[in-house]
Amino acid sequence: MELPHRYPIALIDSHKIIDDHSIVATYEVQADHPVLEGHFPHVKIWPGVYLIEGMNQCAGIHALYLAEQDVGAVQHSDYVTFVTRVDGCKFRNPVFPGDVLTLNATLIKRKMNNIFYDYYNKAQADPKWFLYKAKASQTKIIDQEELDAALSIMGKAKYDQEYECSFTGNI
Predict the structure, then answer these.
(1) Could you read off the pLDDT of 36-71 as tens digits, one per residue?
(2) Which residues belong to the active site?
(3) Per-residue b/e over 102-125, b at no fewer than 16 CB within 10 Å?
(4) Rounded CA separation 31/44 (Å)
């Protein structure tokens, strides 16, 4: 599993999935990285926005890992992770060429892009709620040929979200 990012914006050298909630990654800031030529050229210092991007990529690898746990192999065209906010960000120490960054990401709350996800979880937890997940492959309302065609056009992740009641399309 890898991100689609390539040099010069690929900011992860190695990573280790700790568990379903945590990942650790490393990146060594190279002295010849192109961004250092224009960012304070008289004092080569790694830009803070690149620190945030490195954290995003670290978390993105973890998101892909979780998606693969749910739906199997993930194609980059099926999943895109976005940073929607950065809270309380402080840059405490400068980062210079040769420094090795250790990036840790911890999943605090798993968010889904299907508005019914919260209701689904409530229904699972409360026996007073009625819960039925109507997967297209099980209901047979849509012909198998049409389902196969949709799968080939949409890719597995999007297909699963739209036809098989998957909540993991945007984790």
Answers:
(1) 999 888 999 999 999 999 999 999 898 888 878 766
(2) 39
(3) ebebebeeeebebeeeeebeebee
(4) 8
